[in-house]
Give the backbone structure.
Amino acid sequence: MNMSKGVAALGLAVGLVVVLTACGGKSSTKTPPAPLVITTSKLPQAVVNSPYATGVNATGGTGTYTWCVFESNGACDNGAGVLPPHITMNTTNSIISGTATTGVVSYPFKVQVKDGAGTTATANLSIYVEGSLILSPGGPTLPTGSVGVPYSQQITVSGGLAPYTWSVVSGSLPAGLNLDPTTCTSSSGACNITGTPTTNGPPATFTVQATDSEGSNGNLGTPANGTVTYKITILTITTTSIPPANANVPYSTTLNASGGTGKLSWCVVESSGACDSGAGSLPAGITMNGGGVISGTASALGHYSFTVKVQDSQKQPA
């Protein structure tokens, strides 16, 4: 009887061990999250005085990310002290945005991301702020030119990094005019349109571009461009001959010109160099008014040669 009880007890113990072993087979361990890493390695350039926005990305970790930029004093915040002036980071969504006010310079900084478990990762990044070129005059109308009269007009550029190169990227200058190669190649900031117009025609419209030295000769960034579209009109006297006058008979004829800007003003060039109504050069009794009308009544016979000049509202002569 005692032996039977012992066997029964042993069988119970064995059964219990089997049950415990089966329960232990259902246990498992959690997979750790992937390492937290900032994946952004390069940020796009900003342009001075132009809105800027870009994000920084990360992978791994767990939970919600928070972001910050290390300041020079060790604090980690929105980066107002180390990012380009007027650009900051949103510490919630990592967006770096604003409008830089200082150009042609690179701003290096260290950014940190922290996940929901408090794990952090950092990366060294930088933002280069490209210059912005402004040409003057701003267009579109440049002073009028005249056929056979030397012409010169200066265009200047500010911003970016000198020296600058200049080119006409669309349209064409009036015949006889060009970008002066001396002032428009590797210039310090000014380019002259020079030459002597050779033909009359409709207003010439063209676009001038200045390019700075960013990204060349070891400089950081990429070249900045500035463009302005201009128009030059060539003023020309189109009247080549006038009808004869008869003595003691009222006379009137009008001279014509094309091109120019605004109201035209006429005069007769006297032998003294003065330019007036022509009383000293035209037949006695005949004069010319400022509108180019030659009129009066000639009192004597003769042949009279004279030179006329016309100016537009920009005082450009022809």
User: Anything to note?
Assistant: The chain has three domains: 37-130, 134-232, 237-311. The longest helix spans residues 2-24. Residues 1-24 have pLDDT under 50 and may be disordered. Helices lie at 2-24, 181-184.
